[in-house]
Structures are given as structure tokens and as C-alpha cells.
UniProtKB/TrEMBL annotation:
InterPro entries: UPF0145_dom_sf, UPF0145_YbjQ-like. It comes from the Bacteria. It comes from Trebonia kvetii. PANTHER family: UPF0145 PROTEIN SCO3412, UPF0145 PROTEIN YBJQ. The lineage of its organism: Bacteria, Bacillati, Actinomycetota, Actinomycetes, Streptosporangiales. Belongs to the UPF0145 family. This is Heavy metal-binding domain-containing protein.
Length: 263
């Protein structure tokens, strides 16, 4: 709280902190947003144990819930710091997981980004309140360059949305392993398991965007991590930035093509 108090805008001697690159900082400023300070949230979380059946494809719900909740705690704490600064949003957010030496099932979930405040007239003056429908500062993992392009195109970020699915992929039976030796053949149970797991993560991310009344999600990443669970248990994590147009009648202007005709 002391660090945040020193970052309050207008306070004598206060300076902002930011993890934006020089180019990103200049582009964020050019589009009408002032960096206030670096904000972060952290959660050191014990991820519970759940055993999957050796020969069955199945989601491990206990682990899915743990991985989601731990990230949500980190994000919420980062948003609380931005709120304390009076920020309109957070740009350049990074959401990382670091496994710790405290134990095989203990990980730190870290959310960090740069809190920003909109200048009057930012985004062409079409928005008076940049916070989302949950009255929280918007969050975005877009780069400074992509954030500049988004605002200039007439769109506003609403928040980072995510979905997680930890899935146990069935082991092959010995007969199947021996029967596939020397053959080119699809392993259908593996294909189906990975498809199902990705679908669950994507659908959960889309559900979060719907809660924000978003038009869509940009910059989607679909990551896969095995963490410390072994080769047959993996997490599929989908994340992106939910967006909406600045005005209901917004139309993206197409660049004008100029043809040069020789005499």
C-alpha cells in the first residue's frame, strides 16, 4: 500500500513504473493512456492430488478448478492494485505459473502489468468510462503495438478471459502398442482426448467473454503444460482479450487505395 500511495497521480515527486518497452510506452501514450504504475498479484497455491483411471480419457476436475482459481486470485489482486491507483485499465498483462521447490504440488501464480489512466478524449472521445460492466479496470495481454491498433480501429478491451482444463489421457493397452509397431496409424483415443480437452478450455474462455458482453476475443493463445503431473496428464489453458466496439454504429474504415497511372 505504501508503494501504491507513492504512485498516486499528481503527488509531488511521484513517478510511474512500467514493464512496457520504449516503443510500447510511446504508443500507449499516443493513443491517450497514461501509465500510472506496475501492478501485480500473486498466489502461492497447493494443487490437490487427483488420480485418473489408467485406461480412461477424463477431465481431472479437482486440478482444473485449482489451476483456474489460483490464476483468478492473482488476477483479482492485480486488479485491486490498479483500482487503488484509480486506473481505467491494465495493459501488457503477463500471467505466469512457476513451480516452487517447497513441494511438488506447490506453484506460484503471478499476474503483472502496467496500470493506465485514459486522458480526456482517448479513443476519439467515444468512451467516458473505460471500465467493464463489472466496474473493474479492463485487463489486456495485448502488446503495446496491438493495443494502439485496437484503440485506433475503434475497439475497447474489456478484460482478459481464460479457461482451463486438466485432462488425463488414457494409456494404450499393451495389445494396441504391439499391434501398431511398424505401422502408420492414428491413435484415435489420443486424438479424441486432446480435442475434448481443448474444447473444454475454449468454451470456458468464451463463457467469460459472454459475461462481459463482448463482441469477440482477440489474441487468443491455447497453451499446453504438463507441469509435474507426468506424461499422461496435461493442462490446456486458453486465454485472450475480450473486446467491444467503442460505438454501436462503429464501422472499421478501409484504407483508400491510390492508383498511379502513367501518362
Amino acid at each position: 500500500m505504501k508503494r501504491l500511495a507513492e504512485l498516486q497521480p499528481g503527488k509531488a515527486g511521484s513517478i510511474f513504473t512500467s514493464d512496457l518497452s520504449v516503443n510500447e510506452f510511446l504508443l500507449v501514450r499516443e493513443v491517450g493512456f497514461r501509465p500510472l504504475g506496475l501492478v501485480l498479484g500473486s498466489s502461492i497455491y497447493h494443487v490437490g492430488l487427483q488420480i485418473g483411471r489408467w485406461g480412461k480419457n477424463q477431465e481431472l476436475n479437482v486440478l482444473s478448478q485449482a489451476m483456474y482459481h489460483a490464476r483468478e486470485l492473482a488476477m483479482t489482486r492485480m486488479e485491486a492494485e490498479a483500482d487503488a491507483l484509480g486506473a481505467d485499465g491494465i495493459v501488457g498483462v503477463r500471467l505466469d505459473v512457476e513451480m516452487k521447490e517447497f513441494g511438488a504440488d506447490i506453484a506460484e501464480f503471478i499476474a503483472i502489468g502496467t496500470a493506465v489512466k485514459a486522458d480526456p478524449g482517448a479513443g476519439g472521445g467515444g468512451v467516458s468510462n473505460w471500465r467493464n460492466n463489472k466496474r473493474q479496470p479492463f485487463t489486456s495481454d495485448l502488446s503495446g503495438q496491438d493495443f494502439w491498433t485496437l484503440i485506433r480501429a475503434g475497439y475497447a478491451p474489456l478484460g482478459m478471459v481464460m479457461g482451463s482444463c486438466v485432462y488425463h489421457i488414457a494409456h494404450q493397452r499393451m495389445g494396441s502398442v504391439l499391434g501398431n509397431i511398424g505401422r502408420n496409424v492414428e491413435i484415435e483415443q489420443f486424438t479424441q482426448a486432446l480435442y475434448d480437452a481443448r474444447e473444454l478450455a475454449m468454451s470456458r474462455m468464451q463463457a467469460e467473454a459472454e459475461e462481459l458482453h463482448a463482441e469477440g476475443i482477440v489474441g487468443v493463445q491455447l497453451r499446453q503444460h504438463s507441469h509435474t503431473w507426468g506424461s499422461h496428464t496435461t493442462e490446456f489453458f486458453a486465454i485472450g482479450t475480450a473486446v467491444r466496439p467503442l460505438r454501436e454504429d462503429h464501422v472499421i474504415e478501409r484504407p483508400t487505395m491510390v492508383l498511379s497511372l502513367d501518362a
